[in-house]
Structure prediction request, 604 residues.
Amino acid sequence: MGGKVTCTLGEVKQRADFIIYWGGNPAECHPRHFTKYTIMQKSKFLPRGRKDRTMVLVDIRETKSVKAADIFLQVRPGRDFELITILRAMIKDQHVADEQLAETGLARDVLEDLVARMKSAKFGCMFFGMGLSMTRGKHMNSAALLTLAAEMNAFTKFVAMPMRGHGNVTGADVIMRWQTGYPFGITFNRGYPRYNPGEFSTVDVLVRGDCDAAFIIGADPGATMPQPAIDHLKRIPTIVLDPHVTHTSRLARVHITTAPQGIAAPGTAYRMDELPLPLKPALKSPYPTDEEVVRRINAAIADKPFWLPEGSQPQMLTAQV
Amino acid sequence: MNIAAATESPPVTFRLRRPPTVPLEAETLTPDVIERLSNAEIRSLIVYHGKRQLPLSEFFDVEGERSDRLELHGDLNKVRWIGRAMSHGSITVHGRVGMHLGAYMRGGEIEVHGDAGDWVGAEMKHGFIRVRGNAGGQVGAAYRGSLAGMKNGLIIIDGTAGLEVGMRMRRGTIVIGGRAKDFVGLQMKGGTIVLLEGAEIRAGAWMNRGTIISLQPIQLMPTFAFAAAYNPMFMHILSRHLQPHGIALPCAASEGSFQLFSGDLAVPGKGELFVWEGQSPAI
Prediction:
């Protein structure tokens, strides 16, 4: 396991004749996704547009996206990982017993039809949403779909992509990745980046109470994180940079109002396919941008003495095995 | 092997003086480092309190010197990497202990009278870890991005365990006395996991080789196929191997039999998952 088989939305628009949405509701959450990138567009390779494409929706209940789908598969809640694992077995012609198939809420002929369509597609693309990545199994559910996409490349071109929400979450991942080699869950306490989600990821650090200060930019953990994490944010000095007063700013020691990105502050935002897009501000804001605030904090920290004693350097943990 | 009989010299005792406010990374707390050092040198060993380097004496009262037996007392749930890559000697912890206990361990013994955090014995090569209380997730697992977890040795957790026990393990044995959470033996490549009280869902998911033995009925992945019901010979040997630690596996045909499931078909793997059917064994 490892690596991600993916592409840009431009390729999806031009070539993808088989599209699966898994655990997401793009009709309501990404309303322009269908028309701009996936099913509605005509292209050189798919001249009839919607008629040349097949769209499959996998979800636990009927959402507004069902109307747009050719095939709707209603999986039993909490059985996504099992279903994807069954599909991994079926594409390799492994026999899975009927009663075990039935546990997922889907019949054999439906899944055999799906596998046949997947294999005969020219370019398949799977988009997965929070219904997959935030339910029981979490990262392993996403890993299952990414692995299925990777394994489908034994038969035909297949890619997978998460349906990212909120402003520029992809950007945070991309920047962390090219700067440190890891997308999130990183510690710098030994002077170099170390990666271990579960140990260093924000929610786990806060729930365990492992940090003694928090600096939050453009996020609202006070509204989304579990109660122990919120309680810890209240206990420690929390600093929030946000254009608005959020739940987090109400429990923070310091709130610095900043200019909203893309409206009054320039910058780069990353689309869900990791394509950078420049943002041009349309308005002027009396508030400083996030970048300006962080630069000033950085300059103030640079004036302080180095935190380790004279002549000593942080030691790498890996150097001692 | 009895910890007390390992060597004659008195152990080095560490008593937690003040609890760390952020995680304390103390990978120097291993017999390999301590056995060469005098009491003063042990006190001045560097530990990382967050990003700050501090001497060990800031947090611990240290008694004794030059011994490969370590005794730790106190609530060490924020102290990480104890016994990292140790090759011999012993560590006894009285109290809770933090993450990465005995990670990369190559030999020796660790005993915890209390609970342990995540990543107990992660990627260990040899040795013995016993946790009398509960453990967190990723016991004997592979670190993120690494291909193989524990490569040999024995881990016994008397209590419950968290997610992904034995993830990508290659050899060795893990025994979980209480109930384990999801994804036991995820992507396992070898070795043995014994579940005395069963596990939650997705045990053996994506396993390649290796053996999972559950003495309680567990929910199987749909990609496991029933193979046989029998009493395998190796269960006697495994039972005898675990007997000194007070763990008995049922192996007599008069008591019942094991149902063998093979999988995971998705890989497709040759893993074995044994589920005991019969009288509950006396533990």
Summary: The domain at 169-307 of chain A is CATH 3.40.50.740 (Rossmann fold). Chain A touches chain B at residues 1-2, 81-82, 85-86, 88-89, 92, 94-97, 100-101, 103-104, 136-137, 140, 188-191, 195-199, 210-212, 307-309, 312, 314-315, 317, 320-321 (CB under 8 Å).
